[in-house]
Amino acid sequence: GFEPLHLSPERYGQIEKVYIECLQDRAVTLPLQRRMQSDSPCAKVISLDSSHSPFFSMPERLADELMRL
Question: What is the model's pTM?
Fold first, then answer.
């Protein structure tokens, strides 16, 4: 199983977070990705129809999304 992650509001809590959700990821399933999102709420979720490594399968699309932040 996973060990609980303890993050301080004073440090980590001050950083705006964005989650890049990979819809075709077979290493980290979509339900697990969604649980991680709820465990550490994000200001924005970007969904890509990608495998676990969008930087390989769709680098231009990933770069476009990151540049919009």
Answer: 0.79
